[in-house]
Amino acid sequence: MAKPFIRKLENFTRFSDAERKLLAESAGQGVRQLGAREDIIREGDGPRHVNLVLEGWACRYKQLQDGRRQIIAFFVPGDLCDPHIFILRKMDHGIATLTPVTLARITQERIETMRAASPRIADALAWDMLLTASIQREWTVSLGQRSATERLAHLFLELLLRLRAVGLTEDASYDLPITQADLADTLGLSSVHVNRTLQELRASGQITWKGRRLTIHNPPALMALALFDPAYLHLDREGAHLDAS
Amino acid sequence: MAKPFIRKLENFTRFSDAERKLLAESAGQGVRQLGAREDIIREGDGPRHVNLVLEGWACRYKQLQDGRRQIIAFFVPGDLCDPHIFILRKMDHGIATLTPVTLARITQERIETMRAASPRIADALAWDMLLTASIQREWTVSLGQRSATERLAHLFLELLLRLRAVGLTEDASYDLPITQADLADTLGLSSVHVNRTLQELRASGQITWKGRRLTIHNPPALMALALFDPAYLHLDREGAHLDAS
DNA sequence: CGGCTCCTTGAGCCCAGTCAAAGTCCGTGG
DNA sequence: CCACGGACTTTGACTGGGCTCAAGGAGCCG
Fold it and tell me: Quick check: B192 CB within 7 A of strand C?
């Protein structure tokens, strides 16, 4: 259950057994099951816990007064929602499930305890926050500069690398359990246009997406198409020098 | 010199005199002058300092291989670039000046010293990071959902509130020392379209922008137009309960 | 006063949006 | 096992916001 979380952080640094135990215990706190399309926190709520996704997909989103919705981030297994969030009184955005989700709700104190117990964990959590911020910046670039085809391709590649980092891929293929409408709200496109763009990618042999399974047939080629540079995901074990010996 | 920085953080919490002194000293470290359109850090560089803008405007940006450029964030006086950045080995984006800039370069140790010396400063720095992240999310929403007019109006309002928070406005007017091309790279529009959209806003009496001075004639009206909700800026002294007595 | 850089304007085009209607898939209950 | 209903996907026709290319105007600095 706690595996994706620990596995994600171990892309930054390796932990000792004691640290792994500490992290696994946290990931077992306040476990809850949710259905698809349920709110986890609503905009305006006061944050109570740090949520950790154990299984399923969720998203951060923001809704304008007139109903337009933008998905701001995806949460896949192993993703943590803002370990510092308590400093803000009110959520400025909502978090909702996309599929049925299992999550852990970790208390603020627990986070502090872990940070105090292990500087390596503190650094790993900081790294996680920086990674989240980096992804957010890349989405800004996509929405500002990339065409529909590039955006879609870029997102598929980002998810491939993120899911690979937590062991949820097979070669260049993974479960993508979301709808085209969700993709539209993510990419700032209409669902009709997402559909047409998907068909282009399929027709040109770049991808297959059948059932929930997405396969990227030639990742380097798709990377070239999407102007994808994986550096922003910081998944190359930069924290290796901190590893527990 | 250090005023905008301290003033910004005091939107979250009030400091004791000792804390103010500590912050002011940090803001005096490694002060450097830069011209307009100079790089502060390039993508791929290893971060050496935390940069604090004392005067002038700078931006975070990212450039695609084919030359398209997206401005990801603005730095105005009082803004700090990523106090945790050292955890990452390589910058995944660049930071450059837009106007001549005075900045302080604060060492990692100095940041740690301040955090250790005052939990209130530690919280204020964490608040600053969360605010930065929140602004990034709102830009994602703008690029994904808002029309050209809405984006422009939204940005002008955001800058009004951010500059007001550091005392750089007069009523609803402030210095906006950037070009229309910069705005285009920020808003994901062409400079031609930015120009036409600006003319619309001028013609409808919403704004004046002459010399470097931008004036918003009726902020509430513009807020309605842009679907602007100031909550995301977290400038309502949420940390008041932490104030130094 | 010459030469930047930046702003403005016009014309034509295209990417992506909207609206509307089928088609497909899948889970549920009879 | 099949029929039904709802959610999701696909398709067509048309529209429009924003882009490109290109040229001219304005302001500012040396």
Answer: yes
